[in-house]
Each structure stands twice: as C-alpha cells, then as structure tokens.
Design a protein that fits this description.
The chain is an alpha/beta fold. It folds into two domains: 2-196 and 375-393, Rossmann fold; 213-372, Glycogen Phosphorylase B (Rossmann fold), CATH 3.40.50. Helix content is 44%, strand content 12%. It contains 16 helices and twelve strands. It has helices at residues 2-10, 62-72, 78-92, 109-115, 128-138, 142-151, 155-162, 173-183, 227-238, 256-263, 278-287, 302-309, 322-326, 341-352, 355-372, 375-393; strands at residues 16-19, 35-38, 100-103, 120-123, 167-170, 190-192, 213-217, 244-248, 270-273, 290-293, 314-317, 333-336. The strands form three sheets. Strands 9-8-7-10-11-12 form a six-stranded parallel sheet, sandwiched between helices. Strand 7, helix 9 and strand 8 (244-248) form a beta-alpha-beta unit.
C-alpha cells in the first residue's frame, strides 16, 4: 500500500487508502501524497493481547457484534467486517471516487459498491485456499484440523466476491491458475500485475559479504514457508563447512521452527531477526552470499525480488510462481524441488563454493528486477487496469 499509493500519486492520481488496524505508514501522507482514512475495527488480534475480549462499551453497532461473535466461535471475521465498514463509508462519498481497489479483503461489503455504480478492482495475491490446504495437511490432530476449517471459513465468501468484481488483478500466472481452479473465476477476467521493489533501497553494498552467510525471510511459522526444510538443509551443510543462517522473522516459542532448531542443535548456527526497517533488511540481504526461498508454495515472493535487487544469488523451490518470478534455472537462481532437503543443501553448497557463479547470478537478478519489478512499472500497469474497469462500467470520472 505504501509503495503503490506513492507511485500512483506520482503518475497524477489522487489516492485515498482505507485501512483498519494495524494502520499502514504512507509516504508523504497529507503532504501532496496519498491520504490515509482510518476504518477502526475492534482490533481483536493486536499484540500483546490477541483474541482479547473487548469491553461492552467498545461495541458500536451490529458489525462489531459480528466481529466479536465470529472470533469467539473460531472464525476469522476481519475480511467481512472491514469490507462492511469500508462500504458504509464509501457509500456516503461515492461521488468522490472514480474507482475502488480492494487489496484481498474480498468481503461481501464490496458488492454493495457495485450497486452504487463504483467500478471495483480487487487484487488477490493468491487464493487463501492454498494456505488452508497446506495448514490442514500439516495439522497434527483432528481438533486442529477442525479449528483450521472454521478459521478459513471466509474462503467461500472470497470466492463468491472474486467472481463478481469488475476486474481481478493477481501477481503471477501460477496464482492466476490457482484462482481459476479454487475460486471459479474466468481466466479472461484476470490481469497479471507483479509486485515491486525499490531498487534504490534494495541494492548491492560496497562492504564484503559475510563468508558462509545464508539469509531467508519468513513471515510466519506456517509450513507453507518451508523453514523447517531449510533448517534441515543447513544442518547437513554444517557438517562439511562453516555456514550461518539468518532468518528474518520471529518463530513462536513452541512452534515447529523453534523445535527444529533445538532438535538439530542449530542454536549457534541460526539467528532470527525481526522488525527490521527496509534499509537494514536491504543491508542484511546484501551481506549474504546466498539467499534461500524454500517455500512449499508462493503466489509471488517479495523476498526473492528483494534479494535479486541486492545482487544476492538465490536458491528457490519450483513451488508456485517462484520459477516464473526468478526466471530459468541457473539464470538468476538455482531451482530445487520443494521439500527436498538434499537438493536444497546441494544448491546452497554449490553457490557457496563458486564465487564467480554467485557474482554472475547476482548481477542477472538485479537486471531482471530493474526491467520487471519496480514499483513504477507496477503503478503503470495497475493504472491501465483502472482505466479498463472504468471504461467497462461506462463510469464518468469525477
């Protein structure tokens, strides 16, 4: 939201971002840049008290009751309740906007905007059904599987809404295929616009790279991210060389990643960092000899293009959109099969052993980013989607 809204403003658009908590930080907000319009929820999942019980005085209307009632019964209500609140606000101001762009809430409230004659574009990075399948497959108990089915109940709503929006944007061909299969959207209705990176922030540094350092970025303990597989690969590599793994992310104290670190005796080999500002993340990626994306599925992969922008060679799995994002095997990355510990270890080891190859692959990765994955390119392509949606609706711009 921060990067896309900034670049859309630079193209001449007037942009207002509607968001619930946690509120995004926008560049130049209110100073000629985009405007942030806060749409407060009950913020039931905030730290340090997730799944909190709100005071009755916090309950303002029926939407708040739906939000807290859904949480108490094990569902995840925010896609629905945010869309209802946003739709209510937009209905009062419908003459002020030419188009509404939803970032994967896909809640029923969005459909009301179409009745208000507002063209609607939605971005689906990948269908939530993918996360649901992987998490249920890795659940260790029947109770956990039942809990996950309830939590992901909003997938049906998202599929219904996705089929009815004016235009659907996704980030890769692989993600488009998943949307067609799982959401029943017509392939012709989907436009592919990738995610971007700022190559002025993410770039190579003059300081030498740390010998044997491997970096991975993981937003969660989800099996989808493949971090346990990476830990097993690093354990194999450690038997034959000096290696350091830095994982950007904070694993749960009782989660599978923490258990794997203990069981594999990797406490002195693996380091976890979290909460890094962009400049420090870029410096970390640029300090590594290799970056790894061991995911079991990716609809795109921002960490991959951030590493490529830093001229850090990659080892990625062939899961989802990763080969599409990084290009052919050996060009900007080495490809390995998802879940294959031996292949992942061999790929990382091959790059650690070949400095010239690392330099060649790293340079190719940065060229690919500058050609395809800058936020300015993303904003231009997104703006074209807006124009098509407005024309299709016959909407007269404000």
């Amino acid at each position: 939201m921060r990067n896309l809204s900034r670049e859309l403003v630079a193209l001449g658009h007037t942009v207002e971002v509607l968001s619930g908590q946690p509120y995004p930080e926008l560049d130049n907000a209110g100073e000629g840049g985009p405007t942030l319009r806060r749409v407060p929820s009950l913020d039931l999942y905030r730290e340090p008290d997730p799944f909190r019980v709100p005071h009755w005085r916090e309950l303002r209307d029926i939407v708040d009751l739906v939000e807290v009632g859904s949480m108490w019964t094990g569902a995840f209500p925010e896609p629905l309740t945010f869309s209802l609140r946003a739709a209510r606000l937009l209905a009062r101001r419908r003459r002020e906007f030419d188009i509404v762009h939803d970032n994967q809430s896909l809640g029923y409230g969005l459909l009301a905007l179409q009745f208000a004659s507002l063209p609607l574009v939605a971005t689906v990075h990948h269908p939530i059904t993918v996360d649901r399948r992987v998490e249920i497959a890795h659940a260790l108990s029947r109770t956990r599987r039942l809990s996950l089915r309830r939590w992901y109940g909003f997938r049906r709503m998202q599929a219904r809404v996705a089929r009815r929006v004016d235009s659907l944007i996704t980030v890769s061909r692989a993600s488009a295929d998943e949307i067609v299969r799982d959401f029943g959207v017509r392939r012709a209705a989907i436009r592919i616009v990738p995610v971007g990176v700022d190559p002025d922030v993410f770039g190579p540094h003059d300081t030498p790279r740390a010998s044997g350092r491997v970096v991975a970025v993981s937003s969660s303990d989800s099996p989808l991210k493949g971090i346990v597989v990476l830990l097993e690969a690093v354990a194999k590599l450690r038997t034959e060389r000096d290696v350091e793994l830095v994982v950007v992310g904070r694993p749960r104290a009782t989660g599978p990643v923490t258990r794997a670190v203990e069981e594999l005796c990797l406490a002195e080999t693996v380091r976890f960092v979290a909460g890094l500002p962009e400049s420090e993340l870029a410096a970390l990626l640029a300090s590594a000899e290799v970056a790894a994306v061991p995911s079991l599925y990716e609809g795109f992969s921002i960490p991959a293009i951030e590493a490529m922008a830093c001229e850090t060679p990659l080892v990625v799995t062939t899961a989802g959109a990763l080969p599409e994002v990084v290009g052919p095997h050996g060009e900007c990355a080495l490809h390995v099969e998802p879940g294959d510990v031996q292949a992942l270890a061999a790929g990382i080891g091959a790059l650690l052993d070949d400095p010239a190859r690392r330099v060649r692959i790293g340079a190719a990765g940065r060229r690919r980013v500058r050609e395809r994955y800058t936020w300015r390119v993303v904003a231009h392509e997104t703006s074209e989607c807006y124009a098509e949606a407005v024309a299709r609706r016959g909407h007269r711009p404000c």
